[in-house]
Design a protein that fits this description.
Largest sheet of chain A: none
Number of domains of chain A: 1
CATH superfamily of chain B: Fumarate reductase/succinate dehydrogenase, transmembrane subunit
CATH architecture of chain B: Up-down Bundle
Order of helices and strands of chain B: HHHH
Number of helices of chain A: 4
CATH topology of chain A: 3 helical TM bundles of succinate and fumarate reductases
CATH superfamily of chain A: Fumarate reductase/succinate dehydrogenase, transmembrane subunit
Structural class of chain A: mainly alpha
Oligomer: heterodimer
Chain lengths: ~130, ~110
């Protein structure tokens, strides 16, 4: 399978296993993983609105999902992924303007992103639990 | 404009829009979480909510499509498979955008 017809000659992303994990590289791949996970959330959101449009009976499926334990865990996962992806995305936008690219600053902003996204998710989670109980 | 430059710019513009819209949606969904069918319909029929959620679907699916394309280009080395995956994701995201907006319109007009 390794002929030039089927394989691209452009370099692919570095193999993750080769490098020693660092906060910068871990956050970089986490940004992608959270993005992929959030894609599923977005598809679920469009399903939510479709079920709502079809009618009351189909919307019951959504209520079943979102009030089940598994549903709550998945929803909480999306809250965490969204807060992380958003905060890290702000970091990326600053980088695009050339701000905060130095090693020390990007390490610190990376740590801030981690802690803030965890705190935001916990606050969201507590409110969610309060609403259920 | 070069298509790569266009890709890069649209990815950033949609990111900035999503910063506001997705935050609004996350907080709104938290507020209406567990609501009944009638209450959810009532929420969606407020013009501000129906407009923002439609915008959310447009900018988010755009952002998702561009982001997943970069991931595929980085990790899928077989050209044919890569092309098929990108076409698949592009089609899926456009179809879902249209379905979502039609759903919002249906609720606003008929419910």
């Amino acid at each position: 399978m390794k002929d030039k017809q089927t394989l691209d000659s452009r370099p692919l992303s570095p193999h993750l296993q080769v490098y020693k994990p660092q906060i910068t590289s871990i956050l970089s791949i986490s940004h992608r993983i959270s993005g992929i996970f959030l894609s599923l959330g977005l598809i679920t959101m469009s399903l939510f609105i479709l079920l709502l449009a079809i009618g009351k009976d189909s919307f019951f499926l959504w209520i079943l999902f979102s009030t089940s334990f598994l549903g709550e865990v998945i929803l909480f996962g999306w809250v965490f992924a969204l807060s992380f992806h958003m905060l890290n995305g702000i970091r990326h936008l600053f980088w695009d303007y050339g701000i905060g690219l130095s090693l020390t600053v990007s390490k610190w902003t990376g740590l801030i992103v981690c802690f803030t996204s965890v705190i935001i998710s916990i606050i969201f989670g507590i409110i969610l639990l309060e609403l259920i109980l | 404009m070069n298509s790569a430059v266009k890709h890069w710019k649209i990815q950033r513009y949609s990111a900035i829009m999503n910063l506001f819209i997705a935050l609004w949606l996350a907080v709104s969904l938290l507020c209406i979480q567990g609501n009944s069918y009638e209450e959810t319909i009532k929420w969606l029929k407020y013009p501000i909510n129906s407009i923002l959620i439609s915008l959310f679907f447009i900018t988010s699916f755009l952002h998702m499509r561009l982001g997943l394309q970069v991931v595929i280009e980085d990790y899928v080395s077989k050209i044919l498979l890569r092309k098929r995956l990108i076409i698949g994701i592009n089609s899926l995201s456009w179809i879902l955008t249209i379905i979502s907006i039609v759903s919002v319109l249906k609720i606003v007009i008929f419910n």
